[in-house]
Amino acid sequence: MNFTHETLPQRVVFAAGSAAEAVAAEVAALKCSRVMLIASGREAGLVDPIAKKLPVVLRHEDVVMHVPVEVAVRAREAAETSGADVLVSVGGGSTTGLAKAVAMTTGLPIIAVPTTYAGSEATSVWGLTEGETKTTGVDNKVLPASIVYDASLLTSLPGKMTVASGLNAMAHCVDSMWGPRSDPIDRALAQEGIRGLAEGLPVVAADPASMAGIEQTLYGAYLAAVAFASAGSGMHHKICHVLGGMFNLPHAQTHAVVLPYVLAFNSPNAADADVRIATAFGSPTATAGLAALRKTLDAPRALKDFGMPESGIEKAVAPLLRAIPVNNPTPVTHENVTALLRAAWEGSEPA
Ligand SMILES: NC(=O)C1=CN([C@@H]2O[C@H](COP(=O)(O)OP(=O)(O)OC[C@H]3O[C@@H](n4cnc5c(N)ncnc54)[C@H](O)[C@@H]3O)[C@@H](O)[C@H]2O)C=CC1
Ligand SMILES: O=C(O)/C=C\C(=O)CC(=O)O
């Protein structure tokens, strides 16, 4: 074997039903006393009990998906003015992403409290969107110092969002099998992530408030994010980032739709990945395993259902050909990427 794996330094706290106490303990452990609390007003009911236990100097609610640069600038200015010494984010990937944008320029530590399965809390990946272009990058400054997972915060996540977000986590696992820096440790973490998600997701799809199902799904989502952070964005993530920025598509749903098409595209030329994914699903092949799970979950099927225009297929191909890593198992061409996008747009069977 010949590879270098970097393990990211981070505290991970599972605290079912006691996020407020756990977050307060993490703030104290960092010896911080001035909290900028970043959380959308939509999640106020989840956030208020946490806020009550913290020395909050600023509560910032201006959260937007894909982190438009103007939203990041406003949050950075607010952080500087407030004199905060720590960022606490409570919310989904959009909220964590905004905290990362602030950490990038201020150097403030983040304590992340996720309320979806996006996994941003466990990565050093940031994303910012300017106009129609989403840019992502890696910076250890944006890796949250601590994560507090409290399954009770996800009991309010609607069923459709639960499924889509869980499949965003599944996509981290699958793309980690061939991401640009993928190594055997990433692939082992991703395989266990798939197993955990395949066990947890049917439970939360049937009952989004099941604490046992949420905990199992959070466990899988954490492993997924750790694998993805190390392996980097492969073909699947590049497609979702280009489409998400260009057409302002909902992030988790875009991942959920595109994943089976990328898996079908790559698995014939990725034998090790195919075996690992199939094994994790307990299925004869990777594609069959994912298809069966998607059927159980009644997963989203077509990009046209989420606002992508048909003309966007042609528009996205050139930026995608520039963005997809050269090590992708199946070489990409104008024709095969166009065909993949058209199938995902229509929601036809993955070929
Ligand atoms: N940097 C990274 O490693 C990653 C970044 N992301 C970023 O995260 C963003 C997407 O994050 P998502 O979590 O998919 O969506 P999100 O954070 O935008 O949340 C989606 C919707 O669910 C609602 N919501 C969240 N938690 C809830 C709860 N517990 N109960 C009820 N409603 C709830 C939100 O208010 C929002 O309306 C994108 O900008 C994406 O780029 C996503 C994954 C990894
Ligand atoms: O696509 C993902 O799920 C992972 C990474 C990002 O979304 C990058 C970002 O923070 O915008």
Automatic annotation (TrEMBL):
Pfam families: ADH_Fe_C, Fe-ADH. Keywords: NAD, Oxidoreductase. GO terms for molecular function: maleylacetate reductase activity. Residues 162-345 form the Fe-containing alcohol dehydrogenase-like C-terminal domain. SUPFAM superfamilies: Dehydroquinate synthase-like (SSF56796). Its EC number is 1.3.1.32. Residues 9-150 form the Alcohol dehydrogenase iron-type/glycerol dehydrogenase GldA domain. Belongs to the iron-containing alcohol dehydrogenase family. This is Maleylacetate reductase. It comes from Streptomyces incanus. The lineage of its organism: Bacteria, Bacillati, Actinomycetota, Actinomycetes, Kitasatosporales.
